[in-house]
Each structure stands twice: as C-alpha cells, then as structure tokens.
User: Fold these one by one.
Assistant:
Number 1:
Amino acid sequence: MKKTGVSFGLAALLAMSCLVSCITKDYTLGSGLVPANQDISVRTATFDLPVGLKMADSLQTSISQKGTVGAIRSEHYGLYRSAAAMAVTAAYDSITWGKNPSVTSIKLILVRDTTMVVDPREVKIPQNLYVHRLKVVLDSTMIFNNSLTEDDYDHEVLSQGGVVYTGEDSYTVELDKKLGEELFKIPMATLDSAELFMKTFKGLYIRCDDPLEDCEGGRLTTFDLSSSYINITYQYDDENGNRRAKSDNFLVGEQYAVNICSSGARPLEQTLASDALYMEGICGIKPHISAVALHKMLEDFVTRETIGVPLERILISKAVVKFPFEYTGDYKQFNYYASTLYACKRAKTTAGYSIYGPLAEIEEEDLESGYIDRSNLCYTTNISMYLQNLIKRDASSITSDDDLWIMPIVTLYNSSTGATYYYSDYYYYTQSLLNGTADARHPVLQLTYSILL
C-alpha cells in the first residue's frame, strides 16, 4: 500500500506538470474591463522640502540608571549644559549604626560609562564638578529635561576639596561630614523603606562649571549609576564599649534619576533654514517640518499638475525625505554625527509634557530607516504612511502635533521576546551639520504616486 501511494503521487504530479505546461499566459486578460478614466499610471515627483529649525520641548531624559554631567560650548550651537539629579536609597534592607556613631568619611563614587565631546582634544580637559542636595523628592513624573529648576536644589556645595575631574576614570569625591551625621539621625524604619527614605533625604544634584565665555569645547560624561554609590565609613561603640570601624553604602539613581539639560541654540530657530540645518542631540535644536506647509505644498502641486483633482485622490506608493550633508575632508567628522536620523512626531501627556517618537514606518524592514549614508553623504527616511494619512485630511484639521521633527533614533532589542523597539535618542550627544534649503544639494521630498481619477 505504501508503494502504491507513492506511485500515485508521482503520477498525479506528472499529470499536473503536463497540464501546466500547456497553459499560455495572457498578461492582457481583464485589461479591457478597466474603464479608461480609471487607468492607474505610476508617476514620480521631487519637491524642495520646507524644513526649518526648532527647539523641541520637554524631552524625556530620564535614562535608566544613567547620569550625564558636563557642558560644551560650540560656535553654532552655543552652550549646552547637563546636570544629573538622582534619588538616594540604602543598599541593604536594614542598617544599624551602633552606639555613638561618628563619621570618619563619606564619599560619592560615580563610575564613568561614556564620554562625549565634539573635539577629540577635549576628552581629558579638567572640569569642576559640584555635588548639591536636592530640595524636592524625585518621582515618576520627573522624567523630562526641564523637570527641575535652579530652585529645586540647595546651592550649598557638599563636595569637599575642589576635586577636578578629567574624565579618565571614576569620579570620587569627599562629601561634607554633616551629611553622614544627618544619616545617623534618620529613624531605622525610614532607613529600611526606600519610599520613606527618599521623602526624607531627597537626593543629590551634580553639576559642572561652564567653559570659559570665550572658549569653545567641553565634555559630557555619563556615569553608570547602577555601579555608583555613596560610601560612609564610621566608628561606633560595641556592646563592650570598644570603638569599632564600619562602612555602609547607599545607592544613587536606583529608583529615580533624570538629566536636566539645556541648549543655547534657540537663536538658530527659523521657519526655513536656507544656509544650513543644525541637528543637535538630546535637548538641542532639530530640523523641523511643518505639517501645514507640507500639506499646502502637495495641495498646490496637485492643483497645478492635475487640473483640480482633489488631494485625497493621490495614492502614494513611496515617499522619502533626504537630508544631504557635505564631507569636510576629515573622516573624524562622522564621529560626532548621529548614526540615524528619523522623522518623529510629538504627542502631549495629560500633564502637558511632550513625548517624541519615530513614525511607524521605521518598523518596516524594507523601508528607508534613516541610517547615515557616508557614500552618498545623506540621511534618508521613509514617511509614506504618514504622508498618505496627511493628505487625506482637511487642511483645517492639521495642527503642530502633526509636524515632523528630525531626531536621532536608538534601537533596543529584547532578547527574551525577540521584539525590537525604537525610541528618540536622549542618551548620546551629537552634532550633525546638514545642508540648508538654498544649497545645491538641499533637502528634498521624493514622491512616487498614482492618481485615482
């Protein structure tokens, strides 16, 4: 029976192949059923992109257990500053100080993670870092670059001895002993509860001196807070009255941490950036495309080219925006350019803060993903779905929340689930100089489309 089954299968397969070989393909079949006024032809068009420069607001700079401290001054972007605020919690479930404790030393140890500069000569420059006490309690709502103000930390400096940091290793600094004496007075029940302790102790705020007014350069250092801590060494009386030495640790940034940053690039804001497009990472200035201007540009084109066909009758096959840049002759320029630039949209939280995220097109593997193209000196990002949805809408319904912001993107892969996530990059500081709208190689929108008559 088994042999018969195989023989039947082979016979059937041979018979089917003979039938298929006798079929003649007619590619015109059915074409006569399509009305002439519905015949779809594919067209292409290239537009000068109406792109300007704008400062993004309320960026989410709470990075998991990372604190960035430093300042960079540059010719075009002005002064960029970053300070780090971090909650403090006990490293153990319970701490017992013993009888008559006294502080021997209390130190803050911050472990360096990455260093960011825009001039390689600035990697090891000396910087003065200062440690302050927070006056507010950090929580899950304080995740933005402007969540704290100058009034939210005590301006008394806790770091002792004027330690100068050169960015080469971890930052270790002695803190005022009165901080340790204060810890001794906190009830044990409060020490044992992270929530109660954060409400009592608040946390630390770390900042850096600005570069001199007439000097360009600087450095941003990101510290790995998951490996950083406060160490307090102290003496106490044991049960026999003898003095003993002991040390305990407190964690920084385990519960909450946020980078408070600002950029001096606001004077660069303009509706159309003819000379150059300046793209500054994290909370700096970004290329910006008005959705209203984009909609009107396409509406005018359709009216001009198709004699009044409504914009919503355009069927977009592909839409990409290209941002060219020039090569300076020094390959090191790419060390400070963003590796990926993609079109993002802004959404508002109920508290009024802004959240920026890339368009859904970035999840499609076959579409242009915004990676830097060093060969063609260009960034290319796909906006096909976004643009199709935009042109379907009435112009009166379009708001600034529909605008596009060109931002660096970070990709995170979850090995457990196999899922890939895309976020606006608020971790790496970059400076990417792109061509302006008046340059020979200027930003463009390339459109492949059809018209439904």
Number 2:
Amino acid sequence: MTDTTRDLIQRLVSLARREHYTCEDSWYSCPQSEDGSANDNAGAKCDCGADEHNAKVDAIAADLRGDATTATETQ
C-alpha cells in the first residue's frame, strides 16, 4: 500500500469519526462527552452511539489497509 493510499484512508477516518453528543442542557449529553452528563443515572458508558460508530469506522479502515487482526478486534 502506498503512503498516499494510507493518507487518504486516514483522512476518511478523520472525517467519519463522531464525537460524543453534547447538548446545551448537559442532562441530555453523552456521559463520555467532554463535559459529561448532568444525569447521574446515565452511567459512565457512551449512550449516543459514537463509540459503536467509531468502532465500525476503525474496522472498515483496517479492512481497507488489509489489517485483518485490527478489523476483527474492533467489531
């Protein structure tokens, strides 16, 4: 794989990754967001789907790079 191809895949990954949801009213923010959630009952795990989405992005990027071990670990 060429350096150009690696760079293009990395650019796609950067564009595709999501940040954890943050709301002006932090009660509705994802607990994993930068400021966290004001909802103490929300727990500590991601509840906005960003972790799951980003794992899929990483798996696709690993497949494109031909790195099957990383792809299987992140699925």
